[in-house]
Amino acid sequence: MKYNFNEIEAKWQKYWRENKTFKAENNSDKPKYYVLDMFPYPSGAGLHVGHPLGYIASDIYSRFKRHQGFNVLHPMGYDSFGLPAEQYAIQTGQHPAITTEANITRYREQLDKIGFSFDWSREVRTSNPDYYKWTQWIFIQLFNSWYNVDADRAEDIARLISAFEVAGNAQVNAVCDDDVAVFTAAEWNEYTWEEKQSILLKYRLTYLAETEVNWCPALGTVLANDEIVNGVSERGGHPVVRKKMMQWSMRITAYAQRLLDGLDRLDWPQPLKESQTNWIGRSKGASVKFKIDGHDEFIEVFTTRPDTIFGVTFMTLAPELELVKAITTAEQKEAVESYIEATAKRSERDRMADVKTISGAFTGAYAIHPFTEEKIPIWIGDYVLASYGTGAVMAVPCGDQRDHDFANHFNIPIKNIFEGVDITEEAFADKDNTKIANSDFITGLGFKEATQLVIERLEAMGQGEGKINYRLRDAVFSRQRYWGEPFPVYYKNGIPQMIEAEHLPIRLPEVEKYLPTETGEPPLGNANVWAWDTDKNEVVSNDLIDNETVFPLELNTMPGWAGSSWYFNRYMDAINENEFASQEALNYWKDVDLYIGGSEHATGHLLYSRFWQKFLFDRELLPVDEYAKKLINQGMILGTSAFVYRVEGENKFVSKGLKNNYKVQAIHADVSFVNASDELDVEAFKNWRPEFKDAEFVYEEDKYLVGREVEKMSKSKYNVVNPDDICEEYGADTLRLYEMFLGPLEQAKPWNTAGITGVAGFLKKLWRLYFDDNGLVVTDNEPSKESLKTLHKTIKKATEDVANFSFNTSVSGFMIAVNELTAHKCHERAILEPLAILISPYAPHIAEELWASLGHAESISTAKWPEFDEKHLVESSKEYPVSFNGKMRFKKELPLDLTKEEIEKVIMADERTQKQLNGRTPKKVIVVPGKIINIVG
RNA sequence: GCUCGAGUGGUGGAAUUGGUAGACACGUUGGACUUAAAAUCCAAUGAACAGUAAUGUUCGUGCGGGUUCAAGUCCCGCCUCGAGUACCA
């Protein structure tokens, strides 16, 4: 019987579907295990061989855990809101929902062909109203919460309101906007409803605020940083300006410290944890208030070096700061204004790219040094960022290189406050070797003591305090797009109001155009039926807006990360209509045991989702505050592009080896035209495009050879390899094994089908242990000692390798096992039955077929994992490598029960030893029993 | 610039606590089967030198040092590539 993979794979995929083999139960006596993949965005291009790499690894792990007796949750779904579908809608008018549906269907077909053990009954799609209903619901929970710093957790906003009613806000320790005024209980109770609402908005965990965005007037839309190239829009090349817009933000900064602390408890890759740590960017220092000469305002700065306060010779403010206009003197007005204007025109990219140019302007105003009371000039400069800290720095040119450069450029004095350090050429920033000089009460002290003392004095004066600052900023949550979750928000006198949870979901309205409106409003501004009727509790026509009972709805939609920030919890109870997930399900599954995905999500999805998890935990909606115990990053699979060489100005192509004789252009050829030896199928290439039809080809040794280069796998580079084609030609089991065999899971690696025949051959060889041309050849005979040894060696290796996620080495292990068993002519059931189980997580279709052929009626998927027995591996002798001065010269088989002395005696007596020594007497003989013998001398 | 990761045959890669470098696979070469090809099977295959050969010697894990009986593995100093990040006060 031949191994017919197409037939076998179709058969078992059908079986699994019909028998719901991989459906996970929410009640089970078995221990739970939750294996999660980062869900994909269903793009129009379909899957290529790079996508399934992580899915194959997680599938192997899931299947392994099932063999070990776990109740495994292994779900899949789609992050189905997103820009490409919207872009396509703008171009074609096709509703994004239709495009998305078609893409999902294609993804599903492709995924099914690879034989994944997903529980599809739990599929989620972020663009499905049954799902985004709960995304909207979580948004409402965030709106109705504030962060109590004393309790270090989020609490119901109602508690904050009662606190205000009783004692005002002076005693409240909350994370909130900076500009909250102090009020008493009496004042609070006197405020109008609107006043109360606008104060509460400064405390809510999601809030409206003016945020700077990249606005492109010509496109009428906001652009992401990577949609801007050289200060103009990538599409169309229109100018982009920075503009303030009222947008929803998430108060993620309230969780900065907990997000940082939580990392210690997570088994995540170190580089990923580090990038989150850097992103959060905690720094310890002090905030210092400087009085401004002749003004009532203060300049508040954050500094990590309070010990250098006597080295301050100027202040620098970010040009965007409101304060700048207020303090600028008449003489400096013109210079300052033109500088501010120039800065506004420069995009953040420009400012970033151009670090060398030093620019700034003097405001004419002076700050007063808190200790010396000296007058310090106040400058503005675009090296100070409005969005970090307070947007102001106390400039210490002797201790900070940027301040040093700025001072030199504008001839501002530099004061040296370090003992024994020359600062004429560059600043001295070494905290550890600092000894402060010329600094009044801290002269002679080191960094630590001086810092401590300065903070104490500032606190006593009411002009500063110790402070911890974070780089992390609150996350903007509004998008001026169509294809995203609508906010459950309407506006009453400009005050945002949440729609009651029972009326969710608020469905995306139909629009005629997916572009922004002519007045520059987001696409939802095109909807005619987009108003909220507070009597009927439904979405009604805009004509009915009276601002009495019918109000306009929010026009922005939520960003891509909204739906992906909690989907892993939804999988636990995916079709619950009454809750985002039941407490029973949440308490049973609790968290993800293994999460596999790309490292590109390190500071986006993986940070936001931890934030939401902690928030929902605080509000007692979830049992744990970190959702993924272990995370693994899979490496990218790269494409191997193929190039042909066209002689410039001619329709003539020369083979790779001849290209240096001509002036040629390299042109991408589709990799499907090229075989494993880099030979081009010239006919196929000619038929590819009309302009190649009559091309001339110059061969070397009767062949046309292409050049190869490793690049990112992409449609535009014609190096995409489709998994369907591989499944068709070699089978899904071969694809799965080969993707694992390519190398370590975490490493990036080029895709090259050259080696796939080796894996395909392995499966054929495996099959032949069970079948010959006439049928099953498995016997119930006693297996040989050698075969038992092979089996148990393989059990050990397979079990260890899966535990270490070293799937490439386990595949080699299987190859070795099959090679050995073939050599032993092994056909015994006692060997072949456990072998099928070992291989089943990797090549599940063939394993099911072999299992069924051995007479089992049940699927192999829950068969018990074979147990390793040491006794089959016990050896009585060892072939010792014998080294001379560390170089292995020969081997000698010796019994393992010999003592060191006995081994030495036998080895010294060996004639090969004497030959090596050539008459010399060894200085030393090292014997490590069971390992090695080394003779020195 | 900073942070992290990685450099091993023609190729993908393996190597436990420092203990036989190159497992496994591809490719290549030779052979068997075949009218032929494909498929399959068998053998050889890090490099250099010597030898008809068995075999032997030397070199060899990015580079230069060091520790050790023994280093791909540990330590010090570099180089190259990749990823992330960026005027963070």
Which key features would you list for this structure?
single chain, 937 residues, alpha+beta, Rossmann fold, Isoleucyl-tRNA Synthetase, domain 2, 6 domains, seven-stranded mixed β-sheet, six-stranded mixed β-sheet, 29 helices, 19% strand, RNA-binding, protein biosynthesis, ligase, EC 6.1.1.4
Please, could you describe this protein's structure?
The protein folds into six domains: 31-127 and 560-633, HUPs (Rossmann fold, 3-Layer(aba) Sandwich), CATH 3.40.50.620; 284-469, Isoleucyl-tRNA Synthetase, domain 2 (Alpha-Beta Complex), CATH 3.90.740.10; 509-513 and 528-556, no CATH class; 637-720, no CATH class; 727-872, Orthogonal Bundle (Isoleucyl-tRNA Synthetase, Domain 1); 877-936, Ubiquitin-like (UB roll) (Roll), CATH 3.10.20. Helix 22 (732-741) packs across helix 23 (756-770), helix 24 packs parallel to helix 26 and helix 26 packs antiparallel against helix 27 (844-853). It has 937 residues and is of the alpha+beta class. The longest helix has 19 residues, at 785-803. The protein contains 29 helices and 37 strands. It binds one RNA strand of 89 nucleotides through helix 10, strand 12, strand 16, strand 31 and helix 23. Residues 38-142 form the Methionyl/Leucyl tRNA synthetase domain. Belongs to the class-I aminoacyl-tRNA synthetase family.
